[in-house]
Amino acid sequence: MSSRIDSFPERTIMVGSHWRGLGLWNLYFISKLMLHWAGVLNFHVLYNLVFAAALLVPLPPLWLHRVRCSVATLAGVALLYYDSWLPPFKRLLAQPELLHFSSDYLLELAVRFINWDLVGAGFVLLVAYLFLAQWLRLTVFSVAALACTALASSFTLPSWLLVQPTSGMQPVYQVADVQHNPDTGVLSRTTQPIQGSPSNSQLTEKLDAFYLDEKTRQTSFPGANESAPFDILFINVCSLSNSDLEVSRLQDHALFKRMDVVFDQFNSATGYSGPAVLRLLRASCGQSSHSDLYKPAADQCYLFQNLQRLGFDTESVLNHNGQFQGFLDELTVQGRFPQPFIPTATRPKLTAFDGSPIWNDYDTLSQWWERRKQSGADRTALLYNTITLHDGNREATADGGGRSAPFTTRAQNLLDDLNVFIDDLERSGRKAVLVFVPEHGAALQGDRMQIAGMREIATLDITQIPVGLRVIGANRKATAQPVHVTSPSSYLALSELVSRLVGTNLFVDEGIDWPELTKNLPVTAAVSENDGTVLLQHNEVPYVRMGNRNWIEYPQ
C-alpha cells in the first residue's frame, strides 16, 4: 500500500487506489454548507461542485499537489466572497472615493465584519473536524452533502404533492401582462393571479408593472400662488430610519410630537444619499428606477422647480462640503440648484468618515435664517442637507481625528437642534412649513445578509423613514396629536401634500382641515433600488434581486 502523504490543505485518501481527496477542504465545504443552511450565506451549487471536482482529480506528482493547493486557496477565497452577500468588486471599483475613508473608519468597518458567534462556532467545528478526521473519511460526507444540496436545489415536487393555498388564507396577487397596441401606441395591461410562492419571471413582471404604472403618475400644482407668503423648509437628514429611532430609543422625541402630519410608512426607495436626494428633487412624478434617475426628466417632475414657478426662491444649505461621491454636482446639476450655502467660517463640530468637516446643525440653520430675514424675498423653498448622523463620524479635533461619536448622542443633538430652530422660527413671527424628510436609514442593526452600516440592499429597516410636516405661524391652535398617514407612501405623496398646502390659505383661515388635506394621498408600493440591487414585497415577504441573478427571498 502506498504511504499516506500529508500536505495542507490536502490529505491522501485511499479509496481502492492512491487517490488524493479533499482533505481539510472538507472543513471549507462543510462550513459553507452549514452557513448556507443557517441562511447567512448564499451557495452556488454548480461552482462549488466544480471546485470540489477539481480538488478530487488524482494528481500523482507531489509538486502538482502544491501548485493545486496554491491555486485552490485563491479560488476558494474568491468563491467564498462570491457566495457571500457582500457587494461585487465592480461595485467597489466604481466608487474610488471609498479609498478616501479615514483609517479609523476602515478599522471600525473591519471589526464589524467579525461575527464572534460564528468565530466561536468555527473553532468548535475545527476541533471536531481534527478529532473525527483521525478515524473517519470525511470526504465521503462532504461530497455527499454537496450532492444532496445540488439535488435539493434542482428537484421540484410534482404539483399534486404541493399544498394548494385555500381561499381566504393567502392573498392572490396580480402580475401585469403588458401589451402594446401598434395602431394606437397605447400600453395596456391585463392581470394574472399569483398564488403561493412567486416565480422569478412573475416577480420581474411585477417590478416592470410597478415602474410602468409610476410613469403615469404626476402631481398637479396650482397654476398661480395667491396664498399669503410663507417659506417651505425641507430638512433632509442622512442616515435616520424608523428602525434607527427604535434602536436609539428616540422614536418619542419631542420633535415628532410637534409635527402636524406624520407618515407612518414612508419609503425612501434607496439606501444611498445621492439617489435619495434625486428622488426628493423629482418628487412630483412617480417613482422611477435607479438608472432612470440619471436620465433627463420632464420639468414638471422637479418639486423645487414647481415651487419656483409659484414664486418661491430656491436655496440649498449643507452642513458638509458636499464633495463625497459628487454629491454637490448631483445637487446643482441634477437638482438644478444654485451653489449651496456652506458655513465654512465656523468651527466644525464633527469629522466625517472621509476626514472632511461637518458643522453644527443649529449653527448652520441659524446662519442661513439670518441671511433669509435680510433677503427680502416673499417666499423661499429651502433644501437643508445634513450628514451629522452618517456612519463613521467622529468628534472634530485640530488634527482631524477625535473620539468616536455614538449615533444615539448625535441623533439626540440633531433632533434637539431642530427643536430649538423651530422655536426660533415661531418667535420670529415668520410663516413657514417645515418638512422633515430623511434620506435613508443608518442600518444600525445588521441582518443575515448585511453587517451594521451596510446599505447595498435597501431593506425596509433602511428605507422606512420618519417623515413629518409642521406648519409654523398659522392662525390655529396646535393639534393635540399629529395626523398620521398610514398608507404606504413615498415622495409623490409628499409632493401632493405640498401642492395642496400651497393651494390653501394656511395662514389666513382660522383652522387647518388636516384630515381633508391628507385624504387620498398617492399610495406607493414599497419597492427599493440601489445600483445593482432591487427589493420588493410579495405577500409581505421581501424578495431581492442582485445584478442579473434570479430573485431570492430575503432571509429574515
Describe the SSE topology.
Elements: E1 6-7, E2 10-14, E3 18-20, H1 25-37, H2 45-56, H3 62-83, H4 89-93, H5 103-112, H6 116-132, H7 138-154, E4 173-180, E5 187-194, H8 200-214, E6 231-237, H9 242-247, H10 254-257, E7 261-267, H11 273-281, H12 303-309, E8 313-318, H13 327-334, E9 350-351, E10 357-358, H14 361-375, E11 380-386, E12 394-395, H15 407-428, E13 432-436, H16 460-463, E14 464-472, E15 483-485, H17 491-502, H18 514-517, E16 528-530, E17 533-538, E18 541-546, E19 552-553
Question: Would you mind describing this structure in some detail?
Answer:
The chain has 556 residues and is an alpha+beta fold. It has 18 helices and 19 strands. It has helices at 25-37, 45-56, 62-83, 89-93, 103-112, 116-132, 138-154, 200-214, 242-247, 254-257, 273-281, 303-309, 327-334, 361-375, 407-428, 460-463, 491-502, 514-517, and strands at 6-7, 10-14, 18-20, 173-180, 187-194, 231-237, 261-267, 313-318, 350-351, 357-358, 380-386, 394-395, 432-436, 464-472, 483-485, 528-530, 533-538, 541-546, 552-553. Strands 8-11-6-13-14-7-15 form a 7-stranded mixed sheet. Helix 1 packs parallel to helix 7 and helix 2 (45-56) runs antiparallel to helix 7. The two termini are 52 Å apart.
